[in-house]
Amino acid sequence: MILEIDNVELNYKKKSVLNGVYLKAETGSITGILGHNGCGKSCLLNIIFGSLEPKYKLIRIDNKPILEPLYLNNRIAFLSQHDFIPNRMKIATAFKLFRVNWDNFTSEFPLFEKYKLQRFHKLSGGERRIVEIYLVLNKTADIILLDEPFNGVAPLYIEKIKAFIHHQKYDKIVILTDHRYKEVTDVSDSIYLIKNGCTKLINKMNELEDYRYVNQF
Ligand SMILES: Nc1ncnc2c1ncn2[C@@H]1O[C@H](COP(=O)(O)OP(=O)(O)OP(=O)(O)O)[C@@H](O)[C@H]1O
After folding, report:
1. What is the pLDDT of residue 215?
2. How much distance in Å is there from the Cα of 18 to the middle of ligand 1?
3. Which of 37, 137, 175, 196 is the residue whose CA sits 20 to 30 A from 150?
């Protein structure tokens, strides 16, 4: 499956946020999006998900234009920047709602066993992120969007999460963004940089220096 988005125009009042986006993501490869604070990474993921309506956009899946928000057809799972599990929901209930197996989760993350009947808000920020990433990655979906999956996650778990993300790519489209750019470049097969409202496909990592995204890669 191939997902493409282009012709995006997103403005807030007189401020132009996105105006020259082309992004192509396909099953079997992971697509990373990089860019400075406020360049429009989260907006772009929300536009793909369908929760943000820009002035113009064109989304195609396998060359067919998609006119309805993608979230309506349940083929897409989105880890947004902010928690999506309600604070007072028990962790076991969230796993039931997502139809994700609790025992498989705790075999990968044994330290979470004690949280089964705990309410979501009692977990630390990093622990909440790990639960949500796991649910999103394991939900039945063709497309996965991850907005800052590594934010607040301890280094030991980052490697594990990267391995999970990598595992998903064989039958899903995965698009992710994070400020931990080395993790993003490490796990991604193709990289887009958003600069001045436009996407630039990065072929060689030193282009990230040329575009002044990093001082030294
Ligand atoms: N609801 C809104 N009203 C006005 N401006 C907005 C709104 N949402 C986003 N913006 C602006 O759009 C721009 C892009 O925001 P976005 O959250 O997509 O950036 P980002 O690249 O994800 O940033 P960060 O890396 O800091 O999370 C920012 O300048 C932001 O201030």
Report:
1. 85
2. 10
3. 196
Question: In this predicted model, what pLDDT tens digit does every residue of 28-49 receive, in sequence order?
Answer: 999 999 999 999 999 999 999 9
Q: Pinpoint the alpha helices (H) of the chain.
A: 41-49, 91-97, 102-108, 125-138, 155-168, 181-187, 207-210
Kindly state the tokens that stand for 160.
């594990």
At 15 the three-state DSSP class reads strand
pTM of the model: 0.95
Q: Does the CB atom of residue 1 touch ligand 1 within 6 A? A: no
Ligand 1 contact, 12 CB (< 6 A): yes
Query: Is residue 168 situated within a structural domain?
Result: yes
The number of the ligand 1 atom at minimal distance from the alpha carbon of 81 is 27
Q: Distance from the CA of 183 to the center of ligand 1, in angstroms?
A: 22
